[in-house]
Amino acid sequence: xxxxxxxxxxxxxxxxxxxxxxxxxxxxxxxxxxxxxxxxxxxxxxxxxxxxxxxxxxxxxxxxxxxxxxxxxxxxxxxxxxxxxxxxxxxxxxxxxxxxxx
Length: 102
Known about the structure:
This protein has 6 helices and no strands. By secondary structure, the protein is mainly α.
């Protein structure tokens, strides 16, 4: 039931490596450009905070892309974590699929 065996990069890692570094943006500068606190950016970059629809829209506007890009990164990460949680996997295994109806 794994999406992938390898843990995906967090949205914060992508933000830092693929966007902030090429533009030489500090956390403080990015926060200022999109109108949020530096703490919020720090928590995203360090993987302590998720990308919300609000942040996705702000980042999309700044980098001229879609909010879905950022939200898809977040969803992929959350699904991987959920599907690789041993306790949850045992719970999921107890759910018996319904037969297909014709």
